[in-house]
Automatic annotation (TrEMBL):
It comes from the Bacteria. Keywords: Signal. This is DUF1961 family protein. InterPro entries: ConA-like_dom_sf, DUF1961, Pectin_lyas_fold, Pectin_lyase_fold/virulence, PL-6. Residues 1-19 form the signal peptide. The keyword Mitochondrion does not apply. The keyword Signal applies. It holds the Pfam family DUF1961.
Amino acid sequence: MMRNKLMILLCLLSMHAAAQPSSVVQESSIVQHSSVVQKTSIARQSLPVDHPMPVLLQGDYRSDELHQVLGSQRIYQADFSSKESLAKEWQVEGPAKLTLNKAQQLTFESQLTTDFIQAYQQGLFDFVPNQLGQYYQVLGQLAQATLPNEQYQRMLDAQQRFKGGHVVLWNKQQLPDSYIVEFDLQHQSPMGLFILFFSASGLNNESIFSPALAKRNGVFKQYTSGDIQSYHVSSYTPHRSTANLRKNHHGGQLLKSQPDMAALAPDKAYKYRLIKWRDRFQLYLNDQLQMDYVDKDNALQGGHVGLRLMASARAMVSDFNLYQLQQNPFELPASKQQVTVSNSEQLIDALAKVTAGTTIWLESGKYPDVAAELSTSGTLTERIYIKAKQPGQVLFTGKPALKITGSHITLTGIRFTDGSRFDNSAYVKNKGNKISQKAPYILDLQGSYIRISNCSIDFFDRHHATWLNIEGSKNRVDHCTFVNKQTHGGVLSNAKPPASGAFHRFDHNYFSRPDIGSDNAEVIRLATGWSHNIDAYMTVEYNVFEQCNGEGEVISDKSSSNTIRLNRFTNNLGGLSLRQGNYSHVYGNWFERQQSPHIGNIKESSQHKRSKRARDFGVMIRGKHHLIENNHFQGGGPNLVKLVNGQPEGYQKPGRPKSLPRHHIAAEQVVLRRNNFIPTGVLAEIDKRKLNKDRSVLAHDVSFIANLIYGQPGWQLLSSMPYEGVSWQDNGIVALQNPVADLDKGTNGYFKRRADLPNAYQQRFGSQPLTNYMQLHRAGASWQDYPVAPH
């Protein structure tokens, strides 16, 4: 255990590595410095490696709009309407089973897949990385019983071991040297894996369909060490959780390994988007950058693209398109003009006159009382930038109130400090939930495609109000530091997302705040209860929440269809609250509290009393249809999961509108699967607080599936045992310390195994390893280095 903690600490510390420098191309433009207009040069930059394209992060642009920006033209669209069109456009290799539907979706798998998955589910073999002897033994037996003998024999290696059963689909459209491959893919198997081949040709650059080449039948060695060459990226790897990029030329050379984005949420449908310009290529899964590489060693060009599934996998593919790139998509557009300012008056004047494509540079120093509204918009290709020349050395002080109603605008490198807004403590009522007198927000985002990046707010002032108000749509707050807020009001807050969705993104930020002994002190609020039925589609990812002690809710999710993933929650007096709304997806997060549930903060406020009640720090669940998977929960109670009660269907609370009759909705139809739980007290609490005739419904239809539970001394599964509202299906329990877990698998869904956990056991139960997902990403502003709590 200590070794694992040390490895995790080293991984987390590596998050603070500096980003790679970018290459530049010079362009001419105009710079206005004070009242002097000067001719100068602007650096046109290339996107640094391992940095996603900003235009792809939101993931909601129309296809024609997106490809116009990328400079690509479609050259092929797959026709999945009939077997005839499929045979005309694709070459199938291996014992494939192909199924088409009316929606032009192709399900492809091996003829052995159904029986093979059933054998796995019956426990006849285990899928363990680099230990596939048992896997191929069972697969070979199925193949021998199912396939014609001649076909079976061609899949044996020199030692007469079966190595086949897998399937490859090659698209027959010749690729240009620079191209984009796009398709939708949804995995439909508990095992992997999927491989994308690209730039595939013969070793002498002939077509892979040349009759002079050896015939292929899905055996992997034919594609890595045979008479063809290619790149390939693997994904859907639940057995190892890493995506590998290889170059196949007389053997598969490993070029790069990255955490597999599909393994943590395997049931999602993903838009695969491979972008290749000469020697550089990026692969995206939806809005997540999966792979980014520059091949300086005789990069492969043109060729063909192929889709490969192992015999244990099944997938559905649709909307397959190929595009030719006509310009370098990794080259960032240069500003049309630049303006330099050195004080508040010049900045406010520049904001009033700014046009699309302008960069406003801020000299180092203090900028007091920057109160302005920026209503001018940039465009998709000509953003407006407001940048500190030296990040962290530009200080917004006094009474800043920057309202942005325009779109396509970036603010970066600013420190908000030494505030002097009025102390409105006398106007705070109802535990902070009612504040009658408030100054304008420090930052108020009302437009779209606005980005706040590499900024910080530390303490600031004694004013009770939210720091950042995020409305509009498709806005992003990233790589910022927000600490020591000692007044009521959230740090980041959204009040009402548009009916069409907000699509905001909060990522790579560092948060910490002291206990103020009251309410209305969350860190992030995703809408209010009035918007609980709106599918907001907001994403909270790659953030660090450390000693966020303001109140019991660190994140308060009050809208529907939001994603909270790959965040680190460490030593907080509060947790993730799915407060109102439905269909939240929570995955890849790390929850840990090593200290007392009453612990104070780094900079504890002397103005407030600490909370007396021990607070939760994991996930508190209300609402319906939430999926909580592949998370890690560890530490001091009172629980890791709270299943909250609520009011019955049809209940109408006096004074509330019919659109929002209930303030509390019990957890219902919730799935928690493949999580790691290390409880020291209660794992899951059936919340019975304030249970009365109004709040009369307990949590129900809650399923715990394939989780891995490490029982510590004194722990228990549920606060109320037995309880029929919670079901347990095929969970793994180890290191048992009390009689509550002496249950048999047949009636209760438990396995009882030894504590040292063989590899196969870890493949079937619990979360994927999470440390490698977090080590690549640094959180917070670039000039600040807050301590990282060891795991």
